[in-house]
Design brief:
about 210 residues, alpha+beta, Immunoglobulin-like, eight-stranded antiparallel beta sheet, binds copper (II) ion, binds zinc ion
Length: about 210
C-alpha cells in the first residue's frame, strides 16, 4: 500500500514537474509567436494602407452625353468635388426650348436607343422622387436643365447628396436627359419627364485636364 502510494506521489510529482516545464516552455514560446504573427499582420495592414493611399481619391468625373434614338441632344457633364458637395456643370445642345428632366440613373449603360438599360433614378436610400433641393429625394434627382431658344442649356449647381466615392458614388452610373420637364412630384413614372433623349456614362476624370477647379 505504502510503496504504491509513494510511487504514486513520485509519479504525480514528476508529472507536475514535466507539466510545469512544459507550461513554462509554452508560456515563453506563445507570446513570441503571437508577437511575430501580430507584427506580420501589422506590416500587412500597413502595406495595404499604403497601397490604398497610393490610389488618389476621385475628385473629378465626366460624362460625355450622346443622343438616344432620333434625338440630336449631346454635350458634357462634369462633376467636381468642392467644399460642401459636388459641383455639377452640364452643357448641352440640340434640345427643344424649355425644361428637360435631368437625372443620374443607376446603371452606366447607354447602349440601347430608348436608354432603358440605364435603369431607374439612382436611389440607394429608397427615398421618393423629388427635386434636387428636397431633403428626401433620389440621390440622382437633379431636377431640370433649361434650354434657350437655340436649344442650348447650361446647368450648374453644387449638390450635397451626390458623391464621387463611397456607397452613394455616381462613378460608373449615367446621366439621362428627358424629352419633357420633370415635375419633381410624380412618383410613377418619376417626374413624368417622358422619353430618354440623351445619355452619358459617368467616368473618373483626370483633375489635370480640368484645371480651374
Ligand atoms: Cu431620368
Ligand atoms: Zn428621381
Amino acid at each position: 500500500m505504502l510503496s504504491i502510494t509513494h510511487h504514486s506521489v513520485v509519479a504525480l510529482q514528476t508529472a507536475l514537474l514535466i507539466a510545469s516545464i512544459h507550461n513554462v516552455g509554452q508560456a515563453q514560446i506563445r507570446p513570441t509567436v503571437r508577437a511575430r504573427v501580430h507584427a506580420s499582420e501589422h506590416i500587412h495592414q500597413k502595406q495595404q494602407a499604403e497601397a490604398v493611399a497610393a490610389v488618389p481619391a476621385v475628385t473629378h468625373a465626366v460624362a460625355v452625353v450622346i443622343p438616344l434614338g432620333e434625338s440630336k441632344v449631346k454635350g458634357k457633364v462634369t462633376f467636381t468635388q468642392v467644399k460642401g458637395g459636388v459641383e455639377i456643370v452640364a452643357e448641352l445642345t440640340g434640345l427643344s426650348p424649355g425644361d428637360h428632366g435631368f437625372h443620374v440613373h443607376e446603371f452606366g449603360d447607354c447602349s440601347m436607343a430608348d436608354g432603358k438599360c440605364a435603369g431607374g433614378h439612382f436611389n440607394p436610400t429608397g427615398a421618393p422622387h423629388a427635386g434636387p433641393d428636397s431633403d428626401q429625394r433620389h440621390v440622382g434627382d437633379l431636377g431640370n436643365v433649361t434650354a434657350d431658344a437655340e436649344g442650348k442649356a447650361l446647368y450648374k449647381r453644387v449638390d450635397k447628396l451626390i458623391t464621387l466615392s463611397g456607397p452613394h458614388s455616381i462613378i460608373g452610373r449615367s446621366v439621362i436627359v428627358h424629352a419633357k420637364l420633370d415635375d419633381l412630384t410624380t412618383q410613377q413614372p418619376p417626374g413624368n419627364a417622358g422619353d430618354r433623349i440623351a445619355c452619358g456614362v459617368i467616368g473618373i476624370a483626370d483633375p489635370k485636364m480640368h484645371a480651374g477647379h
